[in-house]
Specification:
This protein is an alpha/beta fold. The chain has one domain: Uracil-DNA glycosylase-like domain (Uracil-DNA Glycosylase, subunit E, 3-Layer(aba) Sandwich), CATH 3.40.470.10. The chain contains eight helices and six strands; from the N terminus they run ααββααβαβαββαα. The chain has a six-stranded mixed sheet with strand order 1-3-2-4-6-5, sandwiched between helices. β5 and β6 form a beta hairpin. α1 packs antiparallel against α5 and α5 crosses α6. The longest helix is centred in the middle third of the chain and has 17 residues. It is globular, with a radius of gyration of 17 Å.
Amino acid sequence: MPGMSPSELRGLTHEIVECRACPRLVEWRERVAHEKRAAFRDEAYWGRPVPGFGDPAARVLVVGLAPAAHGGNRTGRVFTGDRSGDWLFGSMHRLGFANQPTSIACDDGLELHDAYVAAAVRCAPPDNKPTPVERDRCLPYLQRELALLDRVRVVVVLGGFAYDAIAGVLKACDSPLPVPRPKFRHGLVVRTARFAVVGCYHPSQQNTFTGRLTEPMIDDVFRTARDLAHGVPSPS
């Protein structure tokens, strides 16, 4: 398989940033960027679709739900500037995928190693709930990203919504999940012809504040992803 051209990934990023395909999401993301949250009233919000980012040679792809209204929609980088990102990048740092445990702004020095992070839906949705139609309209971007990230062998899905999204992507790239499809759960490992899919509860405040997701639990997921990416058999 030929190596990926960085210019191709940059070109896709440009397409994503310019997308206006979902009127409801366009209206919401731009309204939030105009009205702002009081704590960020002096900041310029991004207010556009949020592309993926990370290591172009990544063997691990992390897929979330969508940018947060005052997180990625403000900073322009997925999982940056919100509590979910604190949990995600904290774990990725502990497991060697990130050079630092925090992500507060696009220019904060965060670098990912052997990992790339993206979202199933690229615009912040009202109530953090994109519709299935909006998800499916956005999926070609994730499909093309996965094709360009041609070293990826492990996909970590953060929550059931991302799991449903990646199921469609893998089917489209001729590496479908098994039928019947295993039900999403934390710690799930499912193999396809080309990939291993690993399930993780989304690091939302709803999950982390209630203890449904703990640091050892998310660390176990990224330890499994790291082992699978390096060819170490999963205990599952």
